[in-house]
Amino acid sequence: MRILLVEDEPNMAANITQALGRQDMIVDNTPTIELAREAILAGVHDAVLLDRRLPDGDGLDLLPFIRKHLKGVPVIVLSALRARSEQIAGLEQGADDYLGKPFTTDEMLARLRAVLRRSAVIAPDVIRVGNLSFDTQSRQAAVNDELLPLPRREMLILEALIRRGGRAVTREGLVDAVFNFDDDIASNTLDAHISRLRKRLGELGATVEICTLRGVGHLLGSL
């Protein structure tokens, strides 16, 4: 899952990014409205966390642009402007939720999960392919109901594939699911992660395979 964070305060941005990273979420942080617009046009984000007091204006001014280019993607405003009138203004302008600063990361994560559930971005609780299952709430995979420990990037690849329900995911789609905008990605990095994931699934007897469709991408299917 990929989150767009629009926050100009470095410490706040770092804390939020770390909290989301611990939930295996990819975070792209943009500190200005202008840079946020560029990120939004990529169309790859599942939710937006939006500050208001940005160097080039009020974050609420981004809401119409988000609604136009990220249809159905939930937005949570994170702002020190916490008066009830400010919260009402944010909600009336199109935000899905409004969280006043300071806040705990636990509360932020709970609210994020809630808006994702309401927007139907999160899939059914458990997705199964063969004897492999993926719990979309705990973000854990299992083979024959035994937990499958995976490094973060391999888990993100598996999640991207299993959520597609037997449909192909393009190489670009996998890169978007696994890496953020600032990552320096070598040409064979994604292939190496996929190869290790294949090996791990085979070692544990998973009755699935990651198929490579030349010129199309990859898909996860049952054996």
Can you describe this structure?
- With 223 residues, this protein is an alpha/beta fold.
- It folds into two domains: 2-118, Rossmann fold (3-Layer(aba) Sandwich); 126-222, Arc Repressor Mutant, subunit A, CATH 1.10.10.
- The chain contains eight helices and 13 strands.
- Strands 2-1-3-6-7 form a five-stranded parallel beta sheet, sandwiched between helices.
- Strand 4 and strand 5 (57-58) form a beta hairpin.
- The longest helix is centred in the C-terminal third of the chain and has 15 residues, at 189-203.
- The protein is elongated.
- The model has no long low-confidence stretch (mean pLDDT 91).
Features:
223 residues; alpha/beta; Rossmann fold; 2 domains; five-stranded parallel β-sheet
Summarize the structure.
The chain is of the alpha/beta class. The chain contains 8 helices and 13 strands.
How many helical stretches? 8
Q: pLDDT under 50 segments (min length 5)?
A: none
Number of domains: 2
Portion in helices: 25-40%
At CATH's second level, what is the architecture of the largest domain? Answer: 3-Layer(aba) Sandwich
Write the H/E string, N to C: EHEHEEEHEHEHEEEEHHHEE
Strand residues, percent? 15-25%
Present the secondary structure layout.
Layout: E1 2-6, H1 10-21, E2 26-30, H2 33-41, E3 47-50, E4 53-54, E5 57-58, H3 63-69, E6 75-79, H4 84-92, E7 97-100, H5 105-118, E8 126-129, E9 132-135, E10 140-143, E11 146-148, H6 152-163, H7 171-178, H8 189-203, E12 208-213, E13 217-222
Parallel strand pairs: 1-2, 1-3, 3-6, 6-7
Antiparallel strand pairs: 4-5, 8-9, 9-10, 10-11, 12-13
